[in-house]
Design a protein that fits this description.
Blueprint (H helix, E strand, L loop, with lengths): L1 H22 L5 H14 L3 H11 L8 H15 L2 H14 L3 H13 L3 H14 L5 H12 L3 H14 L4 H13 L3 H13 L5 H18 L4
Length: 222
């Protein structure tokens, strides 16, 4: 889970960088500081990257403060400093509420096992944009991890309706249906996940099989 989070946040980091860079037409003095930070990040010199990103917050630059805080959060994620990443991400969101930022914040809170705040962050993302699947899927997976299928299933179904071709959503939905005792729906969702070539499908199949075995063991004798 941590590795998945790191890959996602690194990917989002570079997406944000290229979008920002594309909007810059006339360089300002602080832009060179940001470039130095990016170079340090690229070579794994995280402390140096933090130093330059923090310095850029005090300089005249084309990069907005909220974007710089997002960069800082991503550096902390690379270091495994999740509480510091949360603080930086919250600073970014305080300046500009943004869908992707709240989804990332929810993932960070989940990593530090604060699922109440994770759920709140995902719901903030949904409030900002209810037409994207990721926050629904993340919140549904969170509730599924708590065995709360009553809340997990509607969220995962919404995510699947918005993005029917994302394998992990179908796989989580299959598990949720199985936990709720809806065998036919579980089988159908699992088959979709297989067709979409879901990674680690065996782990989802194992969860479903374990729940079905448990259900058979507690079933009353005829």
């Amino acid at each position: 889970m941590i590795e998945i989070m790191r890959k996602q946040t690194i990917f989002c980091f570079f997406c944000a960088f290229f979008v920002a860079a594309g909007m810059i037409s006339c360089a300002k003095p602080g832009d060179n500081t940001v470039r130095q930070a990016m170079q340090a990040l690229g070579t794994g010199e995280y402390d140096t990257a933090l130093q330059f990103f923090t310095q850029a917050l005090e300089e005249d630059t084309n990069y907005s403060p909220e974007l710089l805080y997002t960069f800082i959060a991503n550096v902390y994620v690379n270091q495994g400093e999740y509480q510091k990443a949360i603080a930086a991400q919250e600073s970014s969101l305080a300046l500009r509420a943004e869908y992707r930022g709240f989804v990332s914040l929810g993932m960070l809170y989940h990593l530090v096992k604060d699922d109440e705040k994770a759920a709140a962050a995902y719901r903030n993302a949904i409030a900002l944009d209810g037409k994207k699947a990721e926050a629904y899927a993340s919140l549904g997976a969170l509730y599924l991890g708590q065995d709360d299928t009553a809340q997990a299933i509607p969220l995962l179904e919404k995510a699947a309706a918005l993005e029917p071709n994302i394998a992990v959503i179908q796989a989580n939905l299959a598990v949720a249906y199985a936990f709720a005792g809806e065998r036919e729906k579980s089988d159908a969702a699992l088959e979709k996940a297989r067709a979409l070539k879901c990674e680690n499908i065996e782990q989802f199949e194992e969860k479903i099989a374990d729940r079905q075995d448990s259900s058979r063991q507690i079933a009353p004798a005829p």
